[in-house]
Design a protein that fits this description.
With 166 residues, this protein is of the alpha+beta class. The protein is 31% helix and 17% strand. A hairpin with a 4-residue loop joins strand 4 and strand 5.
Length: 166
């Protein structure tokens, strides 16, 4: 089985396991906003800009780096939750390939283009990357969570909580 097929099969097993465990599925999206350092349903395009030298380490940066990984623009080891020059370079290529201004800044237009790849997959939400799926879900407060080392974690805009980045 090829690496891509193995990754898709692993994602299917993961999603099936979570569904069988009885976790609640995503709720209806409402207008996007940010509050208390978390990302609320529909709020990705409304998040802060990611700019080299101006963005502090956070789960939000880790999410963007995960998007780049899922689309094949960076290695998994590049998920550091730090918006560095390597991330900005990968972002420029991603933006160019998605017919956006390739400035390396992740703002509302770039987040919006990425959000177009988020789709329901059974009871879950998945960023459908060009190479890998990135499992997401909404918690009871309609806050985005991302799969991180065996469990879902809330995405923080003001801190690093993702295991991969600590």
């Amino acid at each position: 089985m090829g690496r891509g097929n193995a990754a898709r099969a692993a994602l299917c097993v993961l999603v099936l396991g979570m569904v069988c465990a009885g976790a609640a599925g995503p709720r209806e999206h409402r207008s996007g906003d940010r509050r208390d350092g978390v990302i609320v349903a529909g709020g990705l395009p409304a998040t802060e800009q990611l700019i080299v030298g101006h963005t502090r380490r956070s789960d939000l940066v880790g999410l963007w780096q995960s998007v780049l990984w899922a689309d094949g623009y960076s290695a998994r080891s590049g998920i550091t939750c730090t918006y560095d020059e390597a991330t900005a370079d990968a972002t420029r290529v991603w933006q160019s390939n998605h017919h956006l201004s390739a400035d390396g800044i992740v703002g509302s237009v770039t987040w919006g283009a990425a959000a177009q790849r988020i789709a329901l997959s059974g009871q879950w939400i998945v960023y459908q990357g060009e190479r890998f799926g990135l499992p997401l879900r909404l918690d009871r407060d309609d806050v985005y969570e991302v799969w991180d080392t065996g469990r879902f974690r809330r995405l923080r805009t003001d801190a690093v909580t993702l295991t991969r980045c600590r």
